[in-house]
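User: I want to check something. If I give you two sequences, will you return the structure for each one separately, not as a complex?

Assistant: Yes, each is folded on its own. Here is the first sequence with its structure:
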Amino acid sequence: MTGPDVDLPGGRDGGEGDAAASALLHALAHRGWTIAVAESLTGGLLVAALVSVPGASSLVRGGVTAYATDLKHHLLGVDDSLLDARGAVDPEVALQMAGGVRDRLGADVGVSTTGVAGPDPQDGQPVGTVFIGIRTPETSVVVPLELHGTRAEIRAETVRRALDEVRART
C-alpha cells in the first residue's frame, strides 16, 4: 500500500454497505488519495457509510450536506444560474457539487449525490432520478440512475452505487 494504512476488520463488516465502503477506502489508500462528499439526496448517509469504517479518518476529509438548493451555490460553488435554469436535480449540478466539495475540503476525490427520493417529483424529474458526480485527479464523470422503491430504498441504493462507482474510478 502506498497510501495511509486503514485498519479494516477483515470479514467482520456489518453488511454490504460496510463492505463497499471498506473496499473503496482500501482503493483510495492504495492510491494515496483522500475523499470528500457533497450530499443532497442522501442527506449524510454516504459520508456516514465511509466514516463507519475504522481508519477512515486518514482518508475522509469530510462531508457537506447541502439539502437546500441555495446551499449548493453558497457552500459548494454550484453556478446559481445553472440552479435557476435546471434546478438541483441535474447532471451538471452533480458534477459541480463534486468539484466544489473536492476543492473546498482539499481532497483528491469529490463525490456528490443529488436526485429525487420522493414522495413527489422535483425540478421536473420523477421520483428515482439520481445523479452521482465524481471528480478525481484523473476523471470527471456523472453517473445517472433511475431507481425504484421507497424513499429509504432509493437513498440506500444511491449510497451503495456511489461507493461502487467511485471505487471503480480509483
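And separately, the second sequence with its own structure:
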Amino acid sequence: MSLFKGAGVALVTPFNADMSIDFPALRKLVREQIAGGTNYLVVQGTTGESPTLNSDEKKQVLETVLEENNGKLPIVYGVGGNNTLAVAENIRKVPQGVDGILSVAPYYNKPTQAGYVAHYKHLADNTDLPIILYNVPGRTGSNVLAETTLELAEVKNIVAMKEASGNMEQIMEIIRCRPEGFLVLSGDDAITLPLIAAGADGVISVVANSFPSHFSKMVTSALNGDFETARKYHYELLPVTKLLFAEGNPGGVKIALEELGWMKPDMRLPLVQVSDALKAKIIAETKKLVG
C-alpha cells in the first residue's frame, strides 16, 4: 500500500485554554503538513490525545481534517481499543474520505498472541479499508511478536505494521519475512533512519507535527538511498527529538508548536505541560532548526 509509505504524521489535537478544541489551529496544522511535504495524515492516534476526546469530538476533528485536507493527502484514522466488538462497530462507522485505519494492539487486558490474531482478524472482517497494526508495548503492556505480525500480514486488508517496540531484532525479522507489499513503519522517530536503512518503508511521526519539512526530507532521502542527506537531517533533528519525548507525548511537541506560533500548548488531564526547564530547552532547539 504505497499510500502509507514515507512520512506520516500523527496529528496533535490543539486545545483552547478552556480545553475546547481549537479548530482554526487544527486547520493550520493540516496546511503546514501539506506545505511541508508530509506524505499522509494520521488522525486521532495517541498523539491526538484520543483517550480524552468523546465520540462527537473525534468526529468533528476528523471532519475538520478531511475538509481542510480536501483530498490532497491520504488520511488514516485511529480506531483502537481493548473491546474488540466495540472497535469493530466504530470501524464500521468510519466515514467516506478515510483511506486507512490505524488500530493499536489491545491494552490492559493483555491478550495472548492468539488473542491478538483473533482481534485483528475480526476487525479486518468488519471493513474493506486497509488496516495498519500498531505495536507499542510501552503503552499497551504487552508485545505483538514478529511471528504474530507475520501471520496477520497474510490477511488481505491488513497492510502494514507501525512498530514502536524499539526492538530492532524483532522489527528486522518482520522486514525479512514479510509478504510482498506489507509495509513496516517506524513508530519511534529517533530510529526511523536506521529502520529505513534496514528495509522499513517510513514512519508515523510525532516530531513531524512541528518540523514537517525537515522530517519529510529525511525520510524521502533515506527511501531514495541518499543516506548522506538523510543523515544530515537525522542528526539535525535528533537533539530536539529526544527533548520532545523527555516528559511524555504530546507535551513536548506542543511546546515546539507554540514556539512556531501554530497553537497553544494546552493538553487535557491527566496530561500536564512539561517542566519549565524542559520547555526552555525545546524552545532553544526549535529556534536552531527554524530560525
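Because they were folded independently, the notes below concern the second chain alone. The mean pLDDT is 97. The chain is about 45% helix and 15% strand.
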